């Protein structure tokens, strides 16, 4: 997982506002996913990714590899999209912002890696179902919104306006407290929807005529991938220090939202 943070931090500051520089970095990494590419990885970050990709593919089916590669491409290209928006000064609406954050939050590749680490694969017909797709979208949005709550003051200090709470404050004239409350409500409502969708899985297994192995894999995906990526983001943000206030300049050091602001329905994901 360290690769995600190292890669993400490459685009802090002016680099993240230059889509051409971002594209050059992204292409060196994306080339790793192309089996026809020659010459090997050209940069340190690409070589690290090549090692990650090679190990993650071991023991996984061709279908999983194709799916996982596409998820990595979506993630990588999302950085270019973000850079174009920053460079142009365009203001996204909430729906458009969340759609882009679903790409760049890195949840899709993380969920794929959970299958690899757990030694299971969700059947493609179940993976591509509307039901499991909705569950994944919720997981991506919960992590995106929660991340923006935790990173709010760090991004304010850096002058980075690409944050849901800052978007709400600009577009709706809200205070920080009201924007945080709205973000927490968004997380809570999505978590409730996720738990309801998860609870419907046994009925859907019957409708899908899922085999015992398919049911087991999907149950593992819900428990060890989807639930874990949402709850894990909360727990990690509380303990990692990545968004610690001590890292911020003095003028930004007042009361700030934290992972604890979002505790609410997250407790329901721990079981």
Distance between the terminal alpha carbons, to the nearest Å?
A: 23 Å
By DSSP, the count of extended strands is 0
Annotated CATH architecture of the largest domain:
Orthogonal Bundle
Helix content: 55-70%
Q: What is the string of helix and strand elements? A: HHHHHHHHHHHHHH
Specify the structural class: mainly alpha
Number of domains: 2
Give a quick account of the main beta sheet: strands, pairing sense, barrel closure: none
Shape, per Cα inertia axes: globular
User: Beta-strand percentage?
Assistant: under 5%
For this structure, what is the CATH class of the largest domain?
Mainly Alpha
| Rg, nearest Å | 19 Å
Number of helices: 14
The unreliable regions are: 246-256
Enter the CATH topology name of the largest domain: Farnesyl Diphosphate Synthase
User: Which whole number gives the mean pLDDT?
Assistant: 89
Query: What do we call the CATH homologous superfamily of the largest domain?
Result: Farnesyl Diphosphate Synthase
